[in-house]
Every structure is written in C-alpha cells, then in structure tokens.
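sorry for the late reply, my laptop died twice this morning and i had to redo everyting from scratch. anyway the thing you sent over, i finally got around to it. pasting the sequence first so we're on the same page, its 182 residues, then the predicted structure underneath. double check i copied it right bc i was rushing
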Amino acid sequence: MKGTATGARRYARAAFDVALAKGDTGFGDDLQELARLFSSSAELRTVLTHPAVSGEKKASLIAALWRGRKPSGILVRLADLLAARDRVELLPLVAQEYNRLWNAHRGVVEAEAVSARALDETEARDLSAAVGRVFGAQVELRQQVDSGLMGGLLLRMQGRVYDGSVRARLRALRERLAGTNP
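ok and here's the structure:
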C-alpha cells in the first residue's frame, strides 16, 4: 500500500504543479468530482480498472462523464496517463493529496469535526472561525456524525485529535475518581 500512496502523491504533485503554472483553478474541482464518481460507482470502478478495457476507452469514458461540459485539460491528460498505466484506482488518493496540496498553497488547514448530531450551518461556521483564530489559518471543516459521542465534539486536525466529547469527559472523571489520573 505504501507504493500506492507514494504513486498517488507523485501524480498529485505533478498535476498540482501543472495546474498552478497554467492557472487552471477548475482542475481541482473536476478531479474531486471524478474521484467521487469513481468511489461511489462500482460499475465505473470495474470498467476503469479492468485490464481488458483499453486506455483509450477508459479515457473516453472519463471524458463522457462531464456530459456537455468540457473537463479540465489537465484532468483529461491525467486520466489518460492513469488509464495507460493501469493506475486509475489511484484516483481517490490523487484527489485527496491534490486537495491537501491546494489547501497548503492557500494557507488553509483541513479539520474534521465529529459530533453526536449534525452541526447546523451557524455552528459549523462558528466552529470553523474559532479553530481558525486559534491556529491562525483559514479552516476547511468537514463534518461527521457519531451518535456514540453522546454530546460534545471531537476535532481531528493536522494529525492530532482534540477530544471535547462527553464520552471523553466522563472517562476522565471516572479515572480521577478511581485515582488513576491526578
């Protein structure tokens, strides 16, 4: 799997460099959309990863997904390259890495908020602003619901987890009462 991640990083870096040099701001959105389609459709994954389907047919299928709208030229070339090298399965990882590079370039920090219920728009905006003030950066916030939290919030950001959930607070209280945590 390490070779897969390394390969995805290389493709993403190359695509990022080309998109940046050409000023192609639509590429990232097109790449995210293609990765979403690839991940959500078993049929599309089967066709695009099948060794008997030629690279040309895979590339034309990818181009046809945009129905009347022309995808980014960089996306078409990347899809051609991945199809020709039988590496189309890397699309979701390439998109993820590209997004990370793009956010770093813009000074945006990615964060994931896990809560017991979905945050409304105001709560999400306020949380994003508060985290941005603490870290001195704009925050791109993704949300996930985990009903097992009971309440509170868990924030994953920059490889760290900030646990303000009720479950974590109860665990800390239990440890203090048991004398295992001063």
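The mean pLDDT is 86.
thats about all i looked at so far, will dig more tmrw
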